[in-house]
Design a protein that fits this description.
about 550 residues; mainly beta; Immunoglobulin-like; 5 domains; eight-stranded mixed β-sheet; six-stranded mixed β-sheet; 2 helices; 39 strands; about 15% helix; transmembrane; Activated leukocyte cell adhesion molecule b
Length: about 550
């Protein structure tokens, strides 16, 4: 006889109880028989089918497997006993007892007898967890936010109870949790479980008295004049108070069934200290200093401003605000680097000026339109020949406001006018003059006019003058040559006069003919040299 094995089977299922722990059958096997304390169950001879011997409750529930295991159908707790497999082989008889245990998981877990609410610091029976039809008896565990609760005999007290069904032998286990809540348990989820089965989570309303209140200011956008301001008093109690006293700049306003009070159309005078408190406990209060933001702005001048050219314009911007300001200017939607100044107005100063003053989210704007007017003045007139040389282009540049009208004293083949910008305009007229002209440009507006003239020669006269200019250049060259010849001739005449003078002076002192003859010879040679010099100079002049 060997040691006893244990087999665990599931309630209601067919259970297999192995013989000799499932060892192979011996070769000289003669007989196998299963029995229990109350009698034999079934037997099997070698090479024959098993025969059921039992006549009690097992008569229709037992059979033998191919490997000699005992099969018990529809197991119940009453099957928890020792079954013995007897094997006869040759001259040996062996017995193998097996202890059978029947287990059953609980059919469900649920929490009943729930508390209506939990009060902080007060032990309260939270609920009862129950599970039934189990074997062995189920062990119940309580959880808060998926973490197991351990009984400490103070804030957590757990008591359990087990009942056995006399008919089935299955157990029902119940567990009661007594719990002392904390403020953090407001949103806590409680569950209980047995084995791998959990109940549905439950939560509770946790009540506690108010210990602190806080005042909050609610508004759409920044707090500024004209806006509405809502005061909200929040309490940390549960349930929170429903009635409060609001202290509005020294005045007490009682509000019931609400935690809010709205102050409409606030002004800068609304700046100050505000409070709220619980009606039944005036010492429990909160306060807040509230500032109402404001921004005042005045611009002078404003609207449409008409001024004359050269005048001055005083610009004044006055501001008054509860905080630091930022000022920016634009002219005709273009940003200016600084505030405009108008000491001496020009036409380019005309335009729409806008100032934007900001303080945080507060914004104020104002604008004026400046129009500078004056008598038109012609700044420049000019003339030039066209690129093809067939026309004359006259230009008249003027400024004034309103826009001047440009008129010419002659008609042209085409006229071109530039855009009118900053009081300036340029007008060009193309003409073909057949005679010499004096052309007049006239600019005018409602304040007056100005005129300038341009002397224009014909295109034919200019062609003749061009040819005359070429002839004059040749005459000038001849004149220069003549001057040079005259200077050379003058030099020769002076030299000749000087020679004659010296000759006469010497004749008065000569005493011998030889000397006179010698002098004659020298004179002849001098005359020849002078003639040669004159011929040479004459040739140079001709060249």
């Amino acid at each position: 006889m060997s040691g006893m094995d244990t087999v665990i089977g599931l309630y209601g299922e067919t259970i297999e109880v192995p013989c000799n722990n499932g060892a192979p059958k011996p070769k000289d096997l003669f007989m196998t028989k299963w029995k229990y304390d109350d009698g034999d169950l079934l037997t099997q001879l070698k090479d024959q089918d098993a025969s059921v011997i039992a006549t009690d409750k097992y008569k229709d529930r037992v059979s033998m497997a191919e490997n000699s295991s005992l099969l018990i159908a529809a197991a119940t707790l009453k099957d928890e006993k020792t079954f013995t497999c007897m094997v006869v082989a040759g001259a040996d008889i062996s017995e193998y007892p097996v202890k059978l245990l029947i287990h059953k998981a609980p059919t469900g877990v649920e929490i009943t007898a729930l508390a209506t609410e939990l009060e902080i610091g007060k032990p309260t029976q939270l609920g009862q967890c129950r599970t039934s039809d189990a074997n062995p008896a189920a062990s119940i565990t309580w959880f808060k936010n998926k973490k197991p609760l351990v009984a400490d005999g103070k804030g957590i007290i757990i008591s359990s109870n087990v009942k056995v069904d006399e008919a089935t032998g299955l157990t029902t286990t119940s567990s009661t949790l007594q719990y002392t809540a904390e403020k953090g348990d407001t949103a806590a989820l409680f569950t209980c479980g047995a084995l791998n089965t959990l109940s549905s989570p439950v939560s509770f309303t946790v009540t506690y008295p108010t210990e602190r209140i806080s005042l909050h200011v609610i508004s759409k956008g920044p707090l500024m004049e004209g806006a509405n301001m809502t005061l909200k008093c929040k309490a940390d109690g549960n349930p929170p108070p429903t009635s409060f006293n609001f202290h509005i700049l020294g005045k007490v306003v009682k509000v019931e069934n609400s935690d809010s009070y709205t102050v409409t159309d606030v002004t800068r005078e609304s700046t100050g200290e505000y409070k709220c408190s619980i009606i039944d406990n005036a010492k429990m209060e909160d306060s807040k200093n509230i500032t109402i933001n404001y921004l005042d702005m005045s611009l002078s001048p404003s609207g449409k401003v008409m001024k004359s050219f050269g005048e001055g314009l005083a610009l004044t911007l006055q501001t008054h605000a509860s905080g630091e300001l930022k000022v920016s200017w634009t002219k005709d939607n273009g940003k200016l680097d600084s505030s405009p100044k108008f000491d001496k107005l020009t036409y380019s100063d005309s335009g729409k000026y806008e100032v934007v003053v900001t303080m945080g989210a507060l914004i104020k704007k104002d604008s004026f339109e400046l129009v500078v007017e004056g008598v038109p003045v012609i700044r420049r007139v000019a003339k030039r020949r066209s690129e093809d040389g067939q026309h004359k282009v006259l230009t008249c540049e003027a400024e004034g406001s309103p826009k001047p009208t440009v008129a010419w004293s002659v008609n042209g083949t085409s006229a071109d006018e530039s855009p009118y910008v900053n009081g300036k305009i340029t007008h060009k007229l193309t003409i073909v003059p057949t005679v010499n002209l004096t052309v007049v440009c006239t600019v005018s507006n409602e304040h007056g006019q100005d005129t300038r003239t341009i002397n224009v020669s014909t295109l034919f006269e200019e062609v003749r003058m061009d040819k005359q200019d070429s002839s004059d250049e040749g005459d000038t060259t001849k004149l220069v040559v003549g001057v040079i010849v005259g200077l050379l001739l003058a030099t020769v005449v002076v030299g000749l006069a000087y020679w004659l003078y010296m000759k006469k002076s010497k004749q008065g002192s000569w005493k011998t003919g030889e000397k006179e003859d010698g002098s004659t010879e020298e004179s002849k040679k001098l005359e020849e040299k002078i003639e040669e010099k004159l011929e040479e100079n004459s040739q140079k002049v001709e060249v």
